[in-house]
Write a structure and sequence with these properties.
With 344 residues, this protein is an alpha/beta fold. It is 46% helix and 9% strand.
């Protein structure tokens, strides 16, 4: 049947004639050398008031195609919308998240669908930003992960984690993990993520002995409300009791070989891989680069946050904590100053 071509008026006239004499869709598709689904869709989508009329169906199909083409130009019809979409695609936001942000947050700008944004990006107006789409920027590589998993004594498994933590009802519960250098590289990236707001913390470590890991984790979460930490069975967490005392919080362990039990941080690690390729040498990036990556993740529009950014959601939760916390105003002022410095 070759490449698909839209039905012409003559074909629609034949469909109308065959339907009038009671012929089946299979019969019509054979006569037109079209698939049965194409004929069925044509009759279903372009009938008017339950009856198929060739002239009306042809006009209806024409209007649909014309409107579809106009949708692809909707982004360029408004300079403010064009600038917003282009700036955020260049900032590595996805078309879906940009569309959601316009619909839920940036309501002063015209709304536009995800499909229309993709059409804009692939049009002559947006070709220069096409490489910022995730599937163009990330090349997936398979293969087993390197790592050292051990059975750690005295651990509390994720089975005992309270329901309000698992359901992301409470703020201040974190997940932790590492990103490693390639086989010939040096250094490690400690990643922590607050579960409810998806707010990330990144810290480069030259080595990941237990003392360095515990100290870095404590420093990243200093002066923040910490209700729990969920981690895997990595050997670097074997002194988890000391870490629990440093953070003054409960620590929960995933079951061996069960990364899905800490899906929040696995998702954030995937996002980091857009900027830190697998098998790369982390020691070659520099702390400023990791700060840039951290900032990118903190300012993503996220569907699970109603298209707010993790930073916006995190600040909202901190404000709630400030109103209900027994801490003094001076202590909270100091905490917010520290957080502001970390953010910038």
């Amino acid at each position: 049947m070759g490449n698909y071509k839209h039905l012409c008026l003559y074909e629609r006239q034949r469909i109308e004639r065959y339907l009038r004499i009671g012929k089946s869709r299979k019969f019509i598709s054979d006569k037109l050398d079209r698939s049965k689904s194409s004929v069925s869709d044509e009759i279903k989508q372009n009938s008017v008031a339950g009856a198929y009329n060739a002239a009306k169906a042809h006009n209806k199909a024409y209007v649909k195609r014309k409107y579809s083409k106009l949708q692809s130009l909707k982004v360029v019809s408004s300079l403010g919308l064009w600038n917003f979409v282009e700036a955020n695609i260049k900032d590595d936001q996805s078309p879906e998240s940009v569309s959601g942000r316009l619909r839920n947050v940036e309501k002063h700008l015209p709304g536009v669908s995800t499909k229309a944004i993709y059409k804009f990006v692939y049009s002559v107006y947006g070709r220069q930003i096409e490489n910022h789409l995730y599937h163009n920027a990330v090349k997936k590589k398979g293969g087993p992960k390197r790592g050292r998993s051990v059975l750690i004594d005295g651990r509390t498994t994720i089975d005992h984690r309270p329901k309000e933590v698992a359901d992301r009802i409470e703020f201040g519960h974190y997940e932790g993990d590492f990103i490693e250098s390639g086989k010939d590289g040096k250094g490690y990236l400690l990643v922590l993520v607050e579960r409810k707001t998806r707010y990330p913390f990144l810290k480069y470590l030259e080595n990941r002995d237990t003392a360095a890991v515990n100290r870095a984790t404590r420093d990243l979460l200093a002066n923040l409300p910490v209700g729990s930490l969920t981690i895997d069975n990595d050997i670097s967490f074997q002194k988890h009791k000391e870490l629990s005392e440093l953070l003054q919080t409960a620590i929960y362990f995933c079951h061996p070989q069960s990364p899905h039990e800490k899906g929040t941080i696995e998702n954030r690690n995937k996002a980091i891989r857009r900027y830190v390729k697998k098998k790369s040498d982390l020691s070659q990036y520099g702390e400023e680069y990791f700060a840039m990556v951290e900032e990118k993740l903190r300012t993503r529009f996220m569907k699970c946050l109603s298209y707010k950014t993790p930073r916006e959601a995190f600040e909202i939760e901190l404000s709630k904590q400030q109103k209900t916390s027994p801490l003094s105003d001076a202590r909270w002022t100091k905490d917010r100053e520290i957080i502001s410095l970390k953010n910038h």
